[in-house]
Design goal:
single chain; alpha/beta; five-stranded mixed barrel; 26% strand; globular
């Protein structure tokens, strides 16, 4: 019968099937080095049942999408969670998450959490940050778990999707997840006063079934994101605000760096594209060029 892998730990996989959750081992062929495809959370699979009620994964269906950090298959959207404060907001890291999600072709929403920690003199800065990403074409939700702000917007965004919650440790992914779940399904990370990083947080990617067509994933927090299989010529396609302007450039293959009559650079000068996002693009471009 068919099912979806919702958890995988130590070579054992929990598969959601029409008969409920079944603990499965993969057929031995998947453990051979020449077999590139091995089971991942999110995979659609065929399983056969054993007499003791456990199962064997016989086949893995073709994947529609694949995230590598976190490693989850068939995700349709990413909800990227960053805190405005505690830990401090690092936009370079946020844009790395965005580029990697754009590269695998999944939809993106951005959550800025912990708005209850903002003081009056913080609000102009955070408002500008929100506008920067909304202007770039992303849905932005400002959230406070403690004041129950924005949770209903998140719930609406999950309907009919297979969603991954991603972001750095301590940003509040697990706390948000627990607000939209019937029970506390993941450990909540508290911030260490000394190092200001999350601890006791989620350690394994897993999918939780919300209803027949809706799954959500949580994954271990991490603080560094490296670009996977992205070249300099491709990078421009993963900055959403550039895409609609490409036809306005003199050259079809314009990288928006030092080419003449570049529509993107023109819009940056006019202020239609946020200069901070463009500078980040230049930084990423140089990083990728140095890695080639």
């Amino acid at each position: 019968m068919e099912g979806i892998i919702v958890k995988g730990v130590g070579g054992l996989y929990t598969v959601d099937t029409p008969m409920g959750l079944v603990m499965c081992k993969p057929r031995g062929i998947f453990r051979k080095k020449e077999i590139a495809l091995s089971p991942l959370v999110g995979d659609g699979v065929f399983v056969s049942l054993l007499e003791d009620g456990s199962g064997v994964i016989e086949k893995i269906n073709d994947r529609k999408t694949l995230l590598t950090r976190p490693k989850v298959a068939n995700i349709t959207q990413a909800i990227i969670v960053f805190a405005y404060k505690e830990p401090d907001l690092h936009l370079d890291l946020l844009d790395r998450f965005i580029v990697n999600c754009e590269a695998v072709g999944i939809n993106i929403s951005i959550i800025f959490n912990k708005i209850d920690l903002l003081k009056e003199n913080d609000k102009k800065k955070t408002q500008n940050i929100r506008k920067t990403y909304e202007k770039a074409g992303y849905k932005v939700i400002e959230v406070s778990v403690y004041e129950n702000i924005g949770i209903d917007q998140i719930e609406n965004a999950l309907i009919g999707e297979m969603t991954v919650f991603a972001g750095p440790s301590g940003a509040g992914k697990s706390s948000i997840f627990n607000m939209i779940s019937d029970e506390e399904l993941m450990e909540t990370g508290e911030l260490s006063e000394k190092i200001r990083r999350g601890k006791h947080t989620t350690r394994h990617s897993q999918l939780i079934k919300l209803d027949k067509d809706s799954y959500v994933a949580d994954s271990p927090g991490f603080s560094a994101v490296h670009f996977e299989d992205i070249g300099t010529a491709e990078l421009k396609h993963f900055f959403r605000e550039f895409s609609q302007l490409q036809d306005g450039c003199r050259f079809a293959d314009c990288n928006h760096i030092d080419e003449p009559d570049c529509k993107v650079k023109e819009e940056v000068f006019k202020g239609s594209i946020a200069e901070i996002r463009y500078k980040r693009y230049l930084s990423f471009y140089e990083e990728l060029r140095g890695a080639q």
